[in-house]
Specification:
201 residues, alpha+beta, globular, 35% helix
């Protein structure tokens, strides 16, 4: 069933109650697809490529996702800002390649992505309780539910928390957010803005 304005307003309010900084209803047709986004999973090769069950090539590609997206009428775009001033201060003295492999950096990033995934999976559950059986939540960036993802062919350990990457599906997250007046600073400086998409139908 198509989402009602009342239910969409309730979902945006729920997202903010759950900790989102901002949430807005958008038309599903305004989600911007671009094949170059998935290309960036491969060039340079993302460390999650082929290792994460929620990243390429273990998820449906942009062409199949675009077909599914075309069957939705509305979506809720969700954002949460995370303070990363300490990380930026560390970059002043530590090369990024060294910083990104440090336990402190990995722990902070993992915590941030897990927190945001909980908001999106919770919002998906709320939409399903409203009767939207095709509600589906996606997140920007990698899944961080586990220190190491289950190997392809094995079962996901957290299927109700893990969510596919918007980028893996070919969504231009920055352009989609900008078109909804929810611009993302790129590259991120003092704050990291994580973005998610709840498809509602």
């Amino acid at each position: 069933m198509s989402a009602t304005p009342k239910d969409l307003r309730a979902l945006t309010s729920k997202a903010e109650e759950m900790g989102a900084s901002k949430a807005s209803t958008i038309l599903a047709s305004s989600v911007i697809m671009d094949p170059r986004v998935e290309l960036k999973c491969r060039i340079p090769l993302c460390p999650n490529y082929g290792r994460s069950l929620t990243c390429p090539p273990n998820v449906i590609g942009p062409e199949r996702f675009a077909l599914a997206l075309g069957r939705y009428s509305h979506a809720v775009l969700v954002q949460k800002r995370y303070d990363q001033k300490e990380m930026m201060a560390m970059l002043a003295t530590t090369p990024y390649q060294e910083l990104e492999s440090s336990p402190e950096y990995l722990g902070r990033m993992r915590g941030m992505f897990k927190d945001f995934a909980a908001i999106m999976s919770g919002l998906e559950g709320e939409a399903m309780r409203m009767g939207y059986r095709f509600a589906a939540a996606l997140v920007g960036g990698p899944c961080c539910q586990c220190d190491e993802c289950a190997s392809p062919g094995q079962k996901c350990r957290h299927p109700f928390q893990a969510r596919p990457s918007m980028e893996a599906m070919g969504i231009d997250v920055i352009a989609t957010a900008a078109s909804a007046q929810m611009a993302i600073e790129y590259p991120a400086r003092d704050y990291a803005t994580l973005t998610g998409l709840l498809l509602v139908e």
